[in-house]
Design a protein that fits this description.
The protein is α+β, with helices and mostly antiparallel strands. Helices cover 33% and strands 14% of the residues. It is built from eight helices and 13 strands. The longest helix has 23 residues. The termini are far apart. Bound molecules: asparagine and zinc ion. It is found in: Secreted.
């Protein structure tokens, strides 16, 4: 038919001017990307306008292929963003980069690996300070932010929400207790890896070793404080840095902390200096510190375990065993990578 994927220009809120894929039909542009995903609700990856309700609404359209003005949405505001396009640009940019990171580095297509198109509904609810994935629609809802946050559409938060879709389609980790913490951590890890990929230019088939900040949602916070610190979870005042038998009683956004830290140590290593944010009191045998294997290998090991080995009931001890098995399959029994996994779990008080 007459649908044609074209490249437009979006003024995003957190990443400046960005190229976004749109679709031209007659003389109308719509925020649909027919090159990323097929089928699904809209036949292509898409951004809709929930228009301050809790239902998805219609796909964004425009008479030109230039979208948004980079400004925070203000209800009834006089800026061009009063039409809400900037929120849609944020969403499309995050979604494109999430899709590309998974596909280009891991060969994983969309949420389910089968390339079923997903979408994001922008402007959900009014002054809504959250974003979430729904497995009913296999889609994500992004709020404009209220008292605590600006628009929730930073790259790491979108990567996080899409991570819930990947987890739901694979291990389906139960969203409570230790498995719930691992579910949350899987999303935080994916969010950071998308951030690293996007900031390196969004091309290539490796996860860059640098580029992400190891903090979830720093860009969106009105007070400058991130939602979570992956490298030292306790900085939020509520998340523990290490596993304990009472971890399972915590909210999943706190019991995620130790696994986030495990992943940081695995990728980047730890320090032997007790005053460092990167120090683990549990690596109390020589050499006291550990050397990381880089984000690319760490994420390959993690993703293989999450999508092919974990079950809905996987806890921290089970995750350790399956991560070691994953590393052994990818890099060999006795490999530096497999030993690093063991060491990273030891650093959060899981195993030795
Ligand atoms: N933004 C939150 C999350 O994705 C929503 C929730 O509590 N599930 O974790
Ligand atoms: Zn989450």
């Amino acid at each position: 038919n007459a649908l044609q994927t074209v490249v437009g220009t979006g003024k995003s809120q957190y990443n400046g001017s960005v190229p976004i894929n749109t679709t031209l039909s007659g003389t109308t542009y719509s925020m649909k990307d027919g090159s990323r995903g097929v089928g699904g609700t809209f036949g292509a990856m898409a951004i809709t306008n929930a228009n301050h309700t809790t239902s998805a609404g219609a796909v964004y359209t425009n008479t030109s292929n230039t979208w948004g003005d980079g400004l925070q949405y203000v209800a009834g505001g006089s800026t061009t963003n009063a039409n809400g396009q900037t929120a849609a640009v944020n969403a499309m940019w995050g979604l494109m980069n999430t899709y590309d990171m998974l596909k280009n580095t891991l060969g994983w297509r969309s949420l389910n690996g089968q390339n079923t198109a997903t979408y994001i509904a922008a402007h959900v609810n009014t002054a809504y300070d959250n974003a979430y994935y729904s497995d009913t629609c296999k889609c994500m809802y992004i709020g404009d932010g209220g008292t605590s946050f600006n628009n929730l559409g930073s790259i790491d938060v979108i990567g996080h929400e899409m991570g819930h879709g990947v987890t739901a389609a694979t291990s389906n980790l139960t969203y409570s207790g230790e498995s719930g913490g691992l579910n949350e951590s899987a999303s935080d890890i994916q969010g950071e890896m998308v951030e690293a990929y996007a900031r390196a230019g969004g091309t290539g088939n490796l996860i860059p070793a640098t580029g992400n900040d190891w903090m979830m949602g720093k860009e969106i916070a009105k007070n400058g404080q991130p939602l979570r610190w992956l490298y030292k979870p306790s900085k939020d005042g509520a998340s523990p840095n290490a596993w304990s038998s009472s971890l399972k009683q915590l909210d999943v956004h706190y019991s995620s902390g130790p696994n986030n830290r495990m992943f940081y140590f695995l990728a980047k290593g730890s320090s032997a200096t007790a005053s460092s944010d990167y120090y683990s009191a549990y690596l109390n045998r020589a050499p006291l510190a550990m050397t990381g294997i880089g984000s690319d290998k760490a994420f390959r090991i993690w993703f293989k375990a999450l999508t092919t080995k974990f079950t809905s009931a996987t806890n921290y001890a089970d995750a350790r065993l399956k991560m070691i098995a994953s590393a052994q399959e990818l890099y060999g029994v006795g490999s530096r990578e497999a030993k690093a996994v063991q060491r990273a779990f030891a650093a959060i008080n899981v195993g030795t």
